[in-house]
Write a structure and sequence with these properties.
Helix content is about 35%, strand content about 35%. Helix 2 (about 115-165) packs antiparallel against helix 3. A hairpin with a 3-residue loop joins strand 17 and strand 18 (about 400-405). It is an alpha+beta fold and about 425 residues long. This is Efflux RND transporter periplasmic adaptor subunit.
């Protein structure tokens, strides 16, 4: 009995629920038939298109190197007896400025000397030997002169004896003795000429030895080859010096050479750029250099008017491609009169590789993409937007060239475009240009 009563109640619930659901659906239909208020315009910022100059940049980095760097070494080992001095009497050291030769002085500033007493003694001994050989030459010349005189006398005697012999006055033996004396006189002259030539050869040999020892003596001193500063001082007074051997790289040479002098008035930086960028560069173009890209970015905003950036020029563009890096080498030279850069410093380089006059362009953030295609929204006269498909060209630091899709005086949405579709109503709350 109870089961029948429960079943009857369940059957009563279904119709009631169906009636309630039907009433709810009718109320929904009535709500949809109501007129909705128009959507509010989207607030946007716009920019008026004005053709202007647009610059495309090439970026690279490199290490500053002095155009002239001298690795100075003595040509022989020895004890360092002298280190050059500054004007205040202190010894030369790393960072000290030195002067090189000019029109008034034949040699630059004295930097260091090693003990040259052994070379001096060798030079003195050779000079004494040279004097002795020269004295021997004078004796040989005197003997040659005497031999030539004897030869002349023998020739006269033989001519007279030959005439007398033909008249039969003297015997054959006496005639032969005079003939032999003439031959001996000829031999004496020849022998003295050979001796004199041998002495001349000795003089040349001793002179060559003296010149060699004199050059070595000069190489016991190091002089500044040009104006600059000392980058490395690897010797000390009273210490022994030994010439380096087996050095191949500049780094090893700088660590082992006695003194390294750098001319920091002219610097060079070698840059590696992609082939596409390097092809657009030419000798003489300006290059902007700084230790950090942020410095260059700020300077570009001010048209590089500040003092934070160093300018250089392109000296050469390699016509070949580096097989390892697949890039081209570009050498930049900098007149470093203010000493803003130092040898070995790492710098960033910006080069204005491409410039387009009167370019139609947009800020990078104003361009949207869909499926890889660029587009932007243009505000028309009734404050509705039109979606324009864009063809892009040169990209600058902040703007991109628009080759097609926009024209001068168009008002393009730059902020708020993510809320728009083609035909959306907008309210311009900020406009530039």
């Amino acid at each position: 009995m109870k089961l029948r009563s429960l079943t009857a109640k369940v059957w009563l619930i279904f119709p009631i629920g169906l009636l309630l659901l039907t009433g709810y659906r009718f109320s929904q239909l009535e709500d949809t038939n109501q007129i909705l208020p128009p959507p509010q315009p989207v607030k946007v910022q716009t920019e008026k298109i004005t053709p202007e100059l647009l610059t495309g940049w090439s970026f690279s980095e490199g290490t500053v190197q002095a155009y002239r760097k001298a690795f100075l070494d003595f040509e022989m080992p020895g004890k360092v007896v002298t280190i050059g001095e500054l004007e205040n009497g202190t010894q030369l050291r790393e960072g000290a400025r030195v002067f090189g030769p000019d029109k008034a002085i034949r040699r630059g500033q004295l930097l260091a000397q090693i003990d040259s007493r052994q070379n001096s003694a060798s030079v003195k001994a050779l000079e004494a030997r040279l004097q002795a050989v020269r004295a021997q030459k004078q004796e040989a010349q005197a003997r040659l002169q005497q031999a030539e005189n004897d030869l002349a006398l023998s020739q006269q005697n033989f001519a007279r004896m030959e005439e007398v012999y033909e008249r039969g006055v003297i015997s054959l033996d006496e005639f032969e003795r005079n003939k032999t004396a003439l031959l001996n006189a000829h031999s004496a002259v020849t022998m003295n000429i050979s001796a004199l030539e041998a002495i001349d050869s000795d003089i040349l040999s001793v002179s060559a030895d003296i010149n060699r020892e004199t050059v070595s003596l000069e190489k016991t001193s190091l002089f500044a080859p040009f104006d600059g500063y000392i980058a490395a001082m690897n010797i000390r007074e009273d210490n022994h010096y030994y010439p380096p051997a087996g050095i191949t790289s500049n780094r090893d040479r700088e660590a082992s050479s006695a003194i390294v002098v750098v001319d920091d008035s002219l610097l060079e930086i070698q840059l590696e750029l992609p082939v596409e960028d390097a092809r657009q560069l030419k000798e003489g173009q300006t290059v902007y250099l700084a230790s950090d890209n942020a410095i260059l970015y700020r300077a570009e905003e001010n048209q590089f008017q500040g003092n934070e950036v160093v300018t250089g020029t392109i000296w050469s563009v390699s016509p070949t491609i580096n097989l390892q890096r697949r890039s081209q080498s570009v050498k930049v030279r900098v007149l470093n009169e203010d000493q803003k850069l130092i040898d070995g410093e790492f710098v960033r380089a910006w080069i204005a590789s491409t410039v387009v006059e009167d370019a139609v362009s947009l800020p990078i953030y104003a361009i949207s993409f869909r499926g890889g295609n660029a587009f932007a929204f243009v505000v028309n006269h009734d404050n509705h937007v039109e979606e324009r498909q864009l063809s892009l060209g040169l990209q600058g630091l902040r703007r991109i060239e628009v080759l097609s899709g926009l024209k001068a005086d168009d008002h393009v949405v730059t902020r708020g475009q993510h809320l728009l579709v083609n035909g959306s109503a907008v309210e311009v709350v900020g406009a530039t240009r």
